[in-house]
Amino acid sequence: MEKRWLSLYVENRVGVLAKISGLFSGKSYNLQSLTVGPTEDETVSRMTIAVESDDATFEQIKKQLNRSVEVIKVIDYTTMSIRMKEIMFIKVKSCTQRDKNEIFQMAEVFRFLVKDMGKDSVLIEAIRTEAKNNSILNVFKSRFTNIEVVRGGSVAIDSISMQDR
């Protein structure tokens, strides 16, 4: 079992997201991440999907997606050079001034942004790879007891520089 990435171009209309995610749940495939948004063409949306599977199951997933009428194109990113980022927000609650100072120092080291701050809380934003966001989150979990975390799924695009070589 390994983590694999797909990008789908799909028709941008009501019910397509439900149909695609239903395809996964109907076959008991667990989605690790799913992000969807419109493209430069307003009639087309792009999905970035992460799934953990073996080779045979992954081939089945791709075949089933290709058979779906709403799917325009399926791209397997698993072995391609890609650029990928996810967004993560961490809200640290019940902060002391010392905690706030530590968070600002961490922001310089980990290169995330402090987006909002109140009397006893700080909100940070990290737009990094999933692995780097995991590292940031682990540090926050080890240092602060009262945090709230929101993560968006990863978005990806094939890398230009690696293709031109």
In whole angstroms, the N-to-C terminal distance is 31 Å
Helix-strand pattern, N to C? Answer: EHEEHEEHEEHEEH
- By DSSP (H or I, 4+ residues per run), the number of helices equals 5
CATH-wise, what's the superfamily of the largest domain?
ACT domain
Q: Could you give a short account of the major beta sheet?
A: 5 strands, antiparallel
At a glance:
The protein is of the alpha+beta class and 165 residues long. The chain is built from 5 helices and 9 strands; from the N terminus they run βαββαββαββαββα.
Would you kindly provide a written description of the structure presented here, covering whatever features stand out?
This protein has two domains: 78 residues, Alpha-Beta Plaits; 75 residues, ACT-like. Chain A, domain 2 (Alpha-Beta Plaits, 2-Layer Sandwich). The protein is 34% helix and 40% strand. The chain has five helices and nine strands. Strands 5, 6, 7, 8 and 9 form a five-stranded antiparallel beta sheet that branches. The longest helix is centred in the middle third of the chain and has 14 residues. The protein is elongated and about 55 Å long. The mean pLDDT is 90.
Protein topology:
Blueprint (H helix, E strand, L loop, with lengths): L1 E10 L4 H11 L4 E8 L5 E10 L1 H13 L3 E6 L5 E11 L4 H14 L2 E5 L4 E7 L1 H14 L3 E5 L3 E4 L1 H4 L2
Antiparallel strand pairs: 1-3, 1-4, 2-3, 5-7, 5-8, 5-9, 6-7
